[in-house]
Write a structure and sequence with these properties.
This is MaoC-like domain-containing protein. Belongs to the enoyl-CoA hydratase/isomerase family. The protein is of the alpha+beta class. The chain has a single domain, classed as Thiol Ester Dehydrase, Chain A, CATH 3.10.129.10. Helix content is 20%, strand content 31%. Strands 1-3-4-5-2 form a 5-stranded antiparallel beta sheet, with helices on one face. It is globular. The chain starts with 16 loop residues before the first strand and ends in a 25-residue tail after the last strand.
């Protein structure tokens, strides 16, 4: 399979490699991800306290990593892709100033579903390893209903 996005309804094969995705690890990404996931542990936002606990700096939490892995898969397979299962394990921490490179390989296929082995490596090793099961719905021909229909405005005079 060539690099780039797979359109819904297109096949994938065992051994297909996804193009790498480089993600700069910034202090803002780490802190914003922790706040967005309501993870207020000091090691994700306070460099001094992280150092007191033995880390060289703040580091990314698993929920941010999980979201980035999901983004990697949906960026490749497209917006119709449905993540069925994400199973990841953390390794080397992501610290500010590093870059994480996500790579993926299709390990299994079953009809419209593929299992992709994902690795995210940074300057000190593998930050994340795991698998993602993703389903690509079949392409439906013909006109499609709108994704969102705005609610009707109330009738004049307030009667609905």
């Amino acid at each position: 399979m060539s690099a780039g996005s797979t359109q819904p309804g297109h096949a994938f094969s065992r051994g297909d490699e996804l193009p790498p995705l480089e993600i700069p690890i910034t202090r803002t990404l780490i802190v914003a991800g922790a706040i967005a996931s309501r993870d207020y542990q000091d090691v994700h936002h306070d460099a001094e306290l992280a150092r007191e606990k033995g880390a060289p700096d703040i580091f990314m939490n698993i929920l941010t990593t999980n979201g980035l892995v999901g983004r990697y898969i949906t960026d490749h397979f497209g917006p119709a892709a449905v993540l069925r299962k994400v199973a990841i394990r953390l390794g080397a921490p992501n610290h500010p100033g590093d870059t994480m490179v996500l790579t993926g390989t299709v390990e299994e296929t079953d009809g419209e579903t593929a299992v992709v082995r994902v690795v995210g490596a940074n300057g000190i090793g593998r930050h994340v390893t795991g698998t993602v099961a993703v389903t690509l719905p079949r392409t439906v021909s013909g006109p499609q209903p709108p994704a969102y229909a705005a609610p009707s405005a109330p009738a004049p005079g307030g009667a609905a």
